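2024-03-11 09:14:02 DEBUG pipeline.ingest accepted 1 chain
2024-03-11 09:14:02 DEBUG pipeline.ingest length=79
2024-03-11 09:14:03 DEBUG pipeline.predict start
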Amino acid sequence: MYLEIITPDKKVFEGEVTSVMVPGSKGTFQMLNNHAAIISTLVNGKVKVKSSKGEEIFEVKGGVVEMLNNKVVILAESA
């Protein structure tokens, strides 16, 4: 699946990933390939991204995540 992490200042991450774990406002959750379409608000916390290159962690200060057709877009206040 494809992931973009975008802040008002810049695009923090863009590329193919195998999983994304985000700090949702109702609790942390993970999205894998072929996940159901979802939109959720985010709270301050860590976004964990796993890809063929390993695991990366990004600190976000709230925002929104959308998953649709194996594309995840995270609009974060800051990262």
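2024-03-11 09:14:41 DEBUG pipeline.report The chain has one domain: 2-76.
2024-03-11 09:14:41 DEBUG pipeline.predict end
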